[in-house]
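For the sake of transparency, this paper describes our internal protein records without simplification. The record that follows is passed on verbatim for readers who wish to inspect the format:
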Amino acid sequence: MRMAEYERNTLETQIRAALNLDGSGKFEITTGVGMLDHLLRHVAVHGLLDFTVNARGDLEIDAHHTVEDVALALGACLDRALGDRAGIVRMGHAYVPMDDALAFVAVDLSGRAYAVIEVAWDAPMIGQLPTSLIAHFLESFARSGRLNLHARVLYGRDDHHKAEALFKALGRALEMAVREEPRRGGKIPSTKGTLDNDH
């Protein structure tokens, strides 16, 4: 089983996270930010990833530190669970509709961290979650997970629907990318023979 755990303790947040890449979409997620919990459940269910996230943060200030550090913890779990990334498909993508909204996410588990996020929000908040932190979450996740992540909401009227479509698409893209491909014979999916931070 490709599994990993990560613990992050700072003066701002205390986070314990675990991830199983070969799961069935089970989750136990408590961050104190209801909308973030909701979005992460979509990643787990639609990515067939088992998640555990328990976070306590300085929400009396705002949600920024909690959202960022949860992303860093989950990215670190992904990086650890992938190991040397041998034998995986490596790249994945998904279009996901949610009523009026349509989102697209593409990932490359290349070992190189990069994120491009294109989303226009109509309101400053979705529940307790500032919409400005959604791009920051995805960027932080890409950085600690060492992956290329391109995410775009093509259109939509409702911010809740846009966010749901985006995170469902992230789950579907990850499910495709982390999948083990038996035809690779356990080899690194790269012409260089390695997946690391070097271009």
Notes: The CA atoms of residues 72 and 143 lie 8 Å apart. The radius of gyration is 16 Å.
